[in-house]
Amino acid sequence: MKTKRFGMTVCLLLSMAGRWAEVRAAAPDCDRACLNGFVGRYLGALVAHDPSRLPLVKGARYTENGQVLKLGDGMWGVANRVRDYKLYFADPAAGQVGFFGVIEENGHPQITALRLKIDDHAIAGIEVIVARKEGPQSWPKPDDLVDHPIFRQPLLPGERRSREELVRIANSYFEGLEQSTARLTPFDPQCTRVENGNMTANNPGGSGMQKMTCAEQFATGFSRFITRVRERRFTVVDEERGLVYAQVFFDHAGMVTTVQLTNGETLKVPPPYDTPYTWQIGELFKIQDGRITRIEAVLVSVPYGMPSGWAK
Amino acid sequence: MRAALFSGFLLAAAAFAQSGNTTGPCGRACLEGFVNQYLDAVVAHNLASVPIAPGARFTENGQRLPLGDGLWNTMGARGKYRLYVSDPRAGEVVFFGSVLENGTPALMALRLKIENRRISEIESIVARGTGGGARGEEGARILDGIGSPHPVFLEAVPEAKRASRDELLKTANYYFSGIEKDDGKGIYPFTDDCNRLENGRLTTNKPGQYSSSQKGGFDLTALGCKAQLETGFFHFVTRVRDRRFVALDEERQLALAFVFFDHAGNAQPVTMPNGSVMPAGPLLPSTWEIAELFRIEGGKIRRIEAVLDACPYGMNSGWSNWEDGLSSRMRWAGGALK
Description:
The complex is a heterodimer.
Chain A: H1 2-25, H2 32-47, E1 56-64, E2 67-68, E3 79-91, E4 96-105, E5 108-119, E6 122-131, H3 163-179, E7 187-195, E8 198-201, H4 214-219, E9 228-238, E10 243-252, E11 258-260, E12 266-268, E13 277-288, E14 291-302
Parallel strand pairs in A: 1-6, 7-14
Antiparallel strand pairs in A: 1-2, 3-4, 4-5, 5-6, 7-8, 9-10, 10-13, 11-12, 13-14
Chain B: H1 2-18, H2 28-44, E1 52-60, E2 63-64, H3 71-74, E3 75-87, E4 92-101, E5 104-115, E6 118-127, H4 136-146, H5 165-179, E7 190-198, E8 201-202, H6 225-230, E9 239-249, E10 254-263, E11 270-271, E12 277-278, E13 286-297, E14 300-311, H7 322-326, E15 330-332
Parallel strand pairs in B: 1-6, 7-14, 9-15
Antiparallel strand pairs in B: 1-2, 3-4, 4-5, 5-6, 7-8, 9-10, 10-13, 11-12, 13-14
C-alpha cells in the first residue's frame, strides 16, 4: 500500500512538474500588485453585494465551501465589511492570487480564504472557504488573527527553492500526516501553525499537543485517524516569498478509534473523529531554505468525502 | 485468497436466496427485506452479503462514496426505531431509523432503488451529533425511546379513499411551496390534527421546542401545521429546492421527498399577526438537507416526519444536475413505474 501510495505521489508530482513548466513559459502580464488589486476589487464588490462590478471571464466559476453558486448568492448576500486582518499571496506566473482575511456577514466576523484565477485581466475562477462559527466543531477565532510579517517578506536568494521543490515540500506535510511520520517533512524547529486563528503548534501558552513543535507532533504518530488527505490542489506558489497555498480535505473514516503513539501511550480518538468526518482546508505554508517555518490554515467542517467543486 | 473469494460467492448466493426470486415484482415485504439485508451487511462490514447491481451509486450526506466507506466503516448495530416507506411500482424503498456508530447513536434516512432484485442506488442521510443544530444523535435517542413509528404511517387506506400518485405529489408539494418565502397566504392543506416530527422532536402543538422561536413572545411550536405557515414565520427559508419525490406508498398514502431548505441569511424581520416582530431568522447562509415523509388523507397532510442534517449552503444531493439542484421545481425522481 505504501509503495502504491508513494507511486501515486510521484506520478502526481511529475504531472504537476509538467504543469509548472508550462506556467513558467507564460509571460506574466499581471504582477503581484495587479493580482492583489483584483482581490481588492473583489472584496469591494462583495461588500457592495454587486458582482456586476467585477471583470469576469464568461463562464467564471464561483464556489463557496465546495458548492458551485451563482455570483450574488451565499456570502454575497450577507457580507458587509472586510476587517483589517489581510494576508495576500500571489503567483504571477500562474495568474493565481490568494487572500486570508476576516469578512463580516451581517456583523458576524468570519475567517475567509479566497483564491482568484486571473486570465487576461479578468476573473475566471473564485474559490472561497468561509469558516462560519457554527456547529459544535467550529472554533474560529477571528479576533486572534494577527499580522505576521514573515508572510510578506521576500526570501533571501539562498533561501529560495524552485516551484517544484516548494510544492514537494508542502505536499510532504500532507504525506507525513497521512503516513503518521515526521520522517518525510522538513520542519524548521521554530515552525508554528495557526488554524482558524488558534495556535495549534509551538504554542507556549497551549496545552498538550499544542505546546509541541510541528515536528514533535508528527513524530508522535498521532495522525493515524486522519485516514486520507485527499484532493491536494496546489494553486498558488509565491516563489518570491516562499509561500505555497494548497486546498485539501482531511478525511477521518471513523474506524480508527485508538492510536498507538510512538511513546507507547494509547490515544483514544475523540469525537467527532470516531465517525466519518471531513475538514475542508485552505492551507498556506511558508517555506524558507527548504524548511516549513509557518503554517496558516482556514478550516471548515463539511460532509465526509465532499469534493472541492474544482476537481475534474 | 481463493478461499476468501469462494466464501464471498457463497455469501452472495445466500443473499440472493434471502431476497427470494430474482424475477417478478418486489412487493412491500421484499423491499423492506432489502433494507434489512443492506443494513445487516453494513453492520457486518460485508459488501458481499447483499446483492448490489454493477455500477450501483452510493451517496452519504450528498457525497458520492465508494461502497464500503462512510457508515460502512463505523456502524456497529441498528437501533430500535424503524420506519419503512415502500413503493413497489417504482422499486423504491426508504427507511428512517436509528443506528449506532462506534457506540454513538445517529439517525439515518436510507433510500434503496431495487432493479431486478439488486440494489442499484443507495442514498443516505446520516444525522450525527456533528451536524450543527440538527442534533441527530439526540433525535436517535428520542426515537429509540418512542420505539415505533406513529401508527398512521403503517395504516393501510381503503382503496376507494386513496388519492392518485399525482395527487399525493401535489398535496405534499404544497408544504414545500408554503414554506419557501412563506408569506402566510399560500395553500396549506393540513388536517386539524396534523403534527410534524423533525429528528425525533415534535415541532407542532408542543410549546417551547425552539428557544429562538420564542423571541418576541411568539412560540412557533405551540401552533399546529397550518397555523405555523399562516403566520409567515418561515419567510427566511429562501429556497426549498431540489424537491425530489422518490417514493409513494399508495396503500398507506405516503409521499417521501429528499429536499434542501436554504436560508440565504438576508431575510428581514417580519411582524407577526399578534403584533410581535420576529427576528430575521438565520443571519448566515445555511442549508438543511432533508428527507421528508408525508401522510396524506382526503387531500390534506395529516403527519410529517423528517430526518435532517446541516450541510454546506447550496449543496447538491448528488442525484441532480446543478440546475435541478438549485431549482424549486417539484419533480418525481423515483424512475419509471412498473
